[in-house]
Amino acid sequence: MSSRLTSAIFVSALIRRVNGEGGFAAVVRHGSDEAGAIFICVPGGFGQGTTLFAQAPQSLFADRDTPPSGGRLFEKVADGLSPDELDAKFQREARLDPDFWVVELELFGRSASDYFDIA
Predict the structure, then answer these.
(1) 5 has which bridge partners?
(2) pTM here?
(3) What does the angle CA 61 – CA 67 – CA 68 come to, to the nearest 5 degrees?
(4) What is the chain's mean pLDDT, rounded?
(5) What is the pLDDT, as a whole number, of residue 63?
(6) Mean pLDDT of 2-16
(7) Sign, Cα dihedral of 11, 13, 18, 24
């Protein structure tokens, strides 16, 4: 059984990989290093809004023989969000769980699924 990477290591590796392959990645909100939930924002081009990915419940991949890379699976939770909608979402989330991360990725023609597993 493989162990899951900490949130800090997963985020660090994701940022390093995206930046290393010509994209741009940055931490918008730093959460708990050990086990903070991770949200990933991928802005669309030309006013299309932002796609938001959140960690999928572990029950979605608990029965798989091989866990996803890094032990984390994400699901698309919203598409086309405005900056105000994102702010409202994260304000609500902070009231429930103040230890979450927000990472923003500019992928420049690449797909989010090139960098993390999506349900």
Answers:
(1) none
(2) 0.89
(3) 90
(4) 89
(5) 56
(6) 88
(7) positive
